[in-house]
């Protein structure tokens, strides 16, 4: 047992759960902010220019700035709290109210939100973005609040994840990836951080939960390679690292499983894969933070998060409210 976990041993299960809720939401924020400056970089470019990303980088927008991932996670949580559960119209309204163009929204989400702003129904806009709906990762990235609130209720977790995805990402693959990301957070919440993660059981549960062959196949690949030493290049060629949901969700799950006992190593690794680094960082952070809890997120990262807009204290507070309404 790593002695960093010892402090958790003396914590009641209920308080540890609160730490895990906060860890998942601030884990999203931290991973998003850390990965943002190198979004779209190749693995080689990150390695050549930075070695690895272990500190928040200075950017035009400032250090520790969050992007659409965190902004939409905030809207998801606000709506779940205010409605005491899922309400699609209200969640879409929260997304619109929080929307800032400069947070780096994807094209599909922009289009869906502008359709809703112009009067389209919340459950129709996502289908009109592109034929068949989008399967980008823009819905999976914001799933932490759904994974934590419904962590004991697999059926409702799936239902709510699908519906919440539908607002912007209506494709079956987009919805499945979002539900899998939420379920990975839920499984991580259930895990006991005072002992080693049962990796086989974790990935098996996800494989069983997946509904599409694209996601199932990649999760099965993770199971085959997760206990072997596989190069980053190979990981990217097997799983992918783009903003396509069925690439970046598995890449995030793999990153967590590679370093289940270290938030820092998992997120640093996730970002080192290149590609959609803010979202892979955010989703890895959501899962790792849900397993390890807020105390395992490096303080130097938390201290560098931007302090404007709906920032750290606000996100912390949303996680506490979800913990309260979940009545755990
Ligand atoms: Mg982003």
| Count of strand segments | 0
Average pLDDT value?
Answer: 95
Number of helices: 18
Radius of gyration: 18 Å
Largest sheet, described in full?
none
In total, the number of domains comes to 1
Structural category: mainly alpha
Strand content: under 5%
Distance between the termini: 26 Å
As for the CATH topology, it is: ADP-ribosylglycohydrolase fold
Just give the CATH class: Mainly Alpha
User: CATH architecture, please?
Assistant: Orthogonal Bundle
The proportion of residues forming helix, as a percent range, comes to 55-70%
Ions and ligands: magnesium ion
The low-confidence runs, each spanning 5 or more residues with pLDDT under 50, are none
Shape: globular
Succession of helices and strands: HHHHHHHHHHHHHHHHHH
Task: Kindly report the name of the CATH homologous superfamily.
Answer: ADP-ribosylation/Crystallin J1
């Amino acid at each position: 047992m790593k002695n960093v976990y010892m402090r958790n041993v003396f914590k009641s299960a209920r308080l540890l759960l609160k730490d895990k809720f906060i860890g998942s939401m601030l884990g999203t924020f931290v991973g998003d902010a850390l990965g943002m400056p190198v979004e779209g970089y190749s693995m080689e470019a990150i390695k050549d220019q930075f070695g690895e990303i272990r500190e928040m980088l200075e950017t035009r927008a400032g250090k520790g700035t969050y992007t659409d991932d965190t902004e939409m996670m905030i809207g998801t949580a606000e709506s779940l709290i205010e409605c005491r559960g899922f309400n699609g119209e209200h969640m879409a309204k929260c997304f619109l109210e929080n929307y800032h163009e400069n947070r780096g929204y994807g094209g599909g989400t922009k289009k869906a939100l502008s359709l809703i702003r112009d009067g389209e129904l919340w459950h129709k806009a996502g289908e009109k973005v592109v034929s068949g709906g989008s399967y980008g990762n823009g819905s999976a990235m914001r799933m932490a609040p759904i994974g934590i609130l419904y962590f004991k209720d697999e059926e409702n977790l799936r239902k709510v994840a699908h519906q919440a995805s539908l607002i912007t990402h209506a494709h079956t693959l987009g919805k499945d990836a979002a539900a899998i990301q939420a379920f990975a957070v839920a499984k991580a919440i259930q895990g006991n951080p005072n002992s080693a993660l049962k990796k086989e059981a974790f990935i098996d549960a996800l494989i069983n939960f997946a509904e599409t062959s694209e996601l199932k196949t990649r999760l099965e690949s993770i199971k085959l390679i997760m206990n072997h030493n596989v190069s980053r290049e190979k990981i990217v060629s097997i799983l992918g690292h783009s903003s396509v949901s069925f690439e970046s969700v598995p890449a995030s799950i793999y990153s967590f499983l590679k370093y289940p006992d270290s938030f820092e190593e998992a997120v640093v690794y996730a970002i080192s894969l290149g590609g959609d680094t803010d979202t892979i960082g955010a989703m890895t952070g959501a899962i790792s933070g849900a397993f390890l809890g807020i105390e395992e997120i490096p303080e130097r990262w938390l201290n560098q998060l931007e302090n404007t807009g709906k920032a750290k204290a606000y996100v912390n507070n949303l996680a506490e409210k979800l913990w309260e309404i979940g009545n755990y």
